[in-house]
Task: structure prediction
Amino acid sequence: MAAGGAGVMRTILADGSGLPGLDRVPIWFNDPQNWWGPDGLLVRIREHLLYTAIIVIIAVLIGLPIGLLIGHTGRGVFAVVGLANGLRAVPTLGLVILLVVWLSPKIHSTAEVPGLIGRGALPYFLPVVIGLIVLALPPILTNSYAGVQNVDPAVRDAARGMGMTGWEVIRKVEFPCALPLIMSGIRSATLQVIATVTVAAFVPFLGGLGAFIRDGVAEANDPQFGYPAMFSAGIVVAVLAVLTDGVLGLLQRLVVSPGVSGRISTRPARRNKFSMEAQLADV
Amino acid sequence: MNDVWQYFVDHRDEIQSWTWTTVWLAALPLIIGLAIALPTGWVASRYRWSYPPIVSGAGLLYTIPSIVLFVLLPGLIGTKILDPVNVAIALTVYTIALLVRVVADALSSVSAETMSAAAAMGYTSLQRLLKVQLPIAVPIIGAGLRVAAVSNVSLVSVASIIGVSQLGQLFIQGQTTNSIPPTVLGLILFVLLALIFDSVILIAMRLLTPWRRAAPA
Result:
């Protein structure tokens, strides 16, 4: 298939444009059918964002409590953080395909969720969700743990001295102080999921923006729906990633206590001092 | 497990050539990326005004999904869509994006006292950079490099979606033939490769920082 694809691309390159149908990209974007149609961008964007939200929310529900707990107790750090870092090495595409080949035939539920999971799609939806949760967990888990570890021990002692129970220390002191790091973990997990959830389209019944890339590869010889569709979908995924990160950045400003974020902004001041001294040293 | 081994034996030649492609697709961007990130990070740490634009620009590059870069690059630079060069360039971009901030912060983290001491001993700023700042920054830069290496190896597999042949092809074969052995073999090989990359960098870091072993704990 790969060799055939290369041959096809060469014929497209020979049409004088020099690029595989790149000039068609604006035309593709201008076609209302590609936006509003039953397989259009809006439908795919909605699927893409829904999958991402479900995966990230489940990953936060799993990773955040575990991270807070091992950060608070200091127990299981080696095992959990080591495992989380090991998970980073697992290629998501391979994991998703393994789960589809191995797990899907064992799920016999035909349950459906209107507007999200069609009839018969659940056995394929679960492997994708599980595979991507594995992708999203490490940054959330390690950042929550590191956030709690970074809390000034004096602050924790003060909270204890005020008579707080262990649970209160986590909820009222460690969690708020760790929130900037936790949020940055969630942001990087979300970015990775938005990028990688494109693999969902390579699983039966599922969509998302990866569908354009799947169809684009399959119809690479079609200058209308081949490369231009892939290129356009690529741009849309990139824009979604940047916009989502921006929204989460705003959310971070809202939820992080100004006292905590204010303390972080004292770091550049130290940098100033350093570069001043460095300049003085140069003289 | 026997099936996995059998599959490996049956497809040995193919897998061997895919392994080499995967190795250079992951390694080359790491080396080029580091070579570009070092001077860029140095500029960001040396000239304070350049730090925010350089670091946030690198951060923005990192938000571009890998599959998107694999798809966009042929259109932007005129390569063929199946050309492995696209993958190498995309991964180089990620390596730079990840390392620039690390290098800048690592170089800045050298204490002012150390810098002054080096200056007092008559080091020029270039000597000080190469003989004092850079060696002290090795552990931090190395840690960043390890993250980049592991993520590069795993990102190479994504390229099989558009058909660039490397080890990720095993996943596509597992999917099209609906069989477990090639998929499991692929997962094992990718994790092994990531481990090897990680160990190589770890060893290189230890060799570059002999004083860390000499110092009493």
